[in-house]
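quick one before i forget lol
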Amino acid sequence: MKALLDQEGITRLQAIIIAIIIVIAIIASVVYFYMPLRAPVRDYYKIGVIVELTGDLARGGFTAKRGYDIWANTINEKGGITIEGKSYRVELVYYDAKSDSAEAAKAVEKAVADGCDFLLGPYSSKCTLGGGPVAEKYKMPFITGSAESHLIPKQHYKYTFQTCVTTMETPEVPIRCIVEQYKLPVKTAAIIGGDDAFSKSLAEAFKYYCEEYGLKVIFFEIYPVAITDLTPVITRVMALNPDILINAGHPSNHVVVIRNSKELKFNPKLFVFHWGVDTADFLDMLKADANYVVGAVMWSPKAPWKDPLFGSAKEFVEKFTTLYGHDPDYGEAACAATGVFIGELLKKYKLTPPFDDAKRAKFLEALEEFSCETLFGVMKYSTDPAHWHVNIGLLKYLLTVQIINQKPVIIGPEASKEADIVFPKPPW
């Protein structure tokens, strides 16, 4: 009987030991399974790019894409971003904002779910404004190389940064050039603009600065940004005979304005546009009809800046032109420079991939502290509430250009000009 009990005890002990071994094995398996999710090993930066690849703003979206791509390709050609002797490649993962703010929000959600380290932002302001709240929700740094609306810094987003100065600053540049630098005999202006966030805020700023500099605004109208015929609007403007017609919009909108004006034989003393007069889209589509249009730009291919990746603005232009067959406009330069700035920041602060919440927090602090010279000038994101997270140093570099012989020529400020303004605009 005692032997039987002893045998039963041994059997129970064996069963307990086996059960313990099974539990330990299960726990070890679970830990092993989840460890890669918590601490993945990655020798590259996974950067989500929210950009308009389809929809009415796709042409601009591909402008931003070219800028981001040339940065990523160039840095990878040179071995990647080197930190403490180890190099990390850059991988750009594109998410289509579809030229729509709600779709931009979905794209940010997808990029976060896919485990991107941080995000580069859209071409347009409306898609940046669409994605900004989602970036806030997930504490995801979101840097736009292209968007310009003054509504973006007004939101005071903690995680959104803007490389181009806003639509509240740039319209002053050509107006001041016309009125103060050249003292042209102009008294009245008509202002039209698209109905997206960028164009509307730009039109409002143009109105403000026209009035500040003594021009009377005799016509102001916002039109659907996707419109392809502005004949009814131009006809109403024409009846008022303004000295200047200002269009606040995208290159495609500028093209429509010029074509419709020529068809109607409307020839004001000056056409003044904002962004886009130096783009391949505007110049190639209009050819000689683009001549004498005045616009504001944030950068010129002749800029004297040194760059830690491309060497100089001149070398950047040479590489870009070889790749894409045209000179870069300032939007393409801004997106490329945004990448250069980030690459230098990552090296200085030794932020290696993959990013967790702690690294993103450190990256966020660095974005507010860091500055460096790039092909786009000396970049520094402001923490001044009036210019929240905007690369405000760019204000000193703003230029006025006029298209002459189908090329943008700097006409202001005085210290930078290459030629005097042609005024009034010659007949068609």
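fyi DSSP finds 13 helices and 17 strands in the chain.
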